[in-house]
Amino acid sequence: MGFIFAIPAAVLAFFARLGWVRGIALLVGAAFSFVLMVSLIGNAATYFSNPPAPLAADEFHKEPRHLALSSDGPFGKFDKQQIQRGFQVYSEVCSACHSLKLVSFRDLKGIGYNDAEIKKIASDWKTQVPSINPDTGEASTRKALPSDNFPAPFANEVAARAANNNALPPDLSLITKAREGGAAYVYSLLTGYANQPGYRNEKGEELLKAFPDAKTPPNLHFNPYFANLNIAMPPPLTTSGQVSYEDGTKPTVDQMARDVAAFLAWTAQPDLESRHAAGVAVVIFLLFASILGYLAYQQLWHDAKRVVRPTGALDPVNQAKTRRAKGKAGIVG
Q1: Which of these three, 52, 68, 87, is where a domain ends?
Q2: Is residue 144's pLDDT more than 60?
């Protein structure tokens, strides 16, 4: 019985020595750590005893297929002819729903168009630029100028959703940087539409047999390259010859997808070639400077002797002071 009463007394004595504030803080911290540990152990036990059910997107989602572009790698350069074909695909197919608000018409000069061609492209663009009537002050529209950015196909988000079953078409200016896989994702998505009934993954598992509830809802389209397998955008490229290329290239669905993916890679990084050139110049300069630095070291310092000056406790003056102090205090050693 005396032992039981001795425990609170020992605790109080401990707090008195430690300080009440610090002691209470220590007690609260220990209680908090205990609760966290219990929660961690409980959640871990629940996870292993009742693991989460797999999702159809986890089992049947595909990673983007490889797409080789001339702009790949540290020395890559854009294929301007391919990018012009991709721009043609965008202007005739994609621009009906998707904006390109961070790109201006005059930027097309970077892919080989001259000033006259750019002026005509801007003037003939199917969507006019919002403006103000100078006579009445009312909202109006006008033909685009080379200095204008590509106008959006819809006046606002509400109009865009109303025309696309409440789905909002994303802006494509930076799409290859915003999506994992970049241009390969765009290419795979455009060519990856499939019929869901009977669809199997690489393991041979059939989607609707493994996940009967994963049937594509109305107004959506099955595409294993999309994150949740069902996308609101219908297949934009459906048949060969959908776009007639001016350079004579055969416009198959695969070719059109490759070209528009290359074009969107350019819209996301129009300064890619200049950055590559600057990077090569910097690497060459640093290599040259490193060689010069090494040769200068060999010429000037290769035979220099390194002398370490003792400081602190190793300084003979300080050691002598220490010995005198120890002698006065009667300390041996």
Answers
A1: 52
A2: yes
Tokens of 278: 């600057």
% residues pLDDT > 70 (the chain): 91
Residue 12's alpha-carbon distances to 4, 9, 19, 24, 27, in angstroms, are 14, 5, 10, 11, 12
When divided into structural domains, the chain yields a total of 2
- The domain containing residue 189 runs over which residues? 58-103+149-274
pLDDT at 12 over 80: no
The model carries a pTM of 0.76
pLDDT given for residue 333 in this prediction: 65
Phi/psi-derived region of residue 268, left when phi > 0, alpha when psi is between -120 and 50, beta in every other case: alpha
- The amino acid at residue 167 is A
User: Is there a domain that residue 125 lies in?
Assistant: no
Q: Which two tokens stand for residue 217?
A: 């809802």
Which tokens go with 222?
């099955």
Are 111 and 83 within 8 A, CB to CB?
A: yes
> Is residue 18 pLDDT above 60, yes or no?
no
Q: Are 204 and 78 contained in the same domain?
A: yes
Q: What are phi and psi of 34, to 5 degrees?
A: -65, -45
**pLDDT at residue 45, as a whole number:** 84
Average pLDDT over residues 109-117: 95
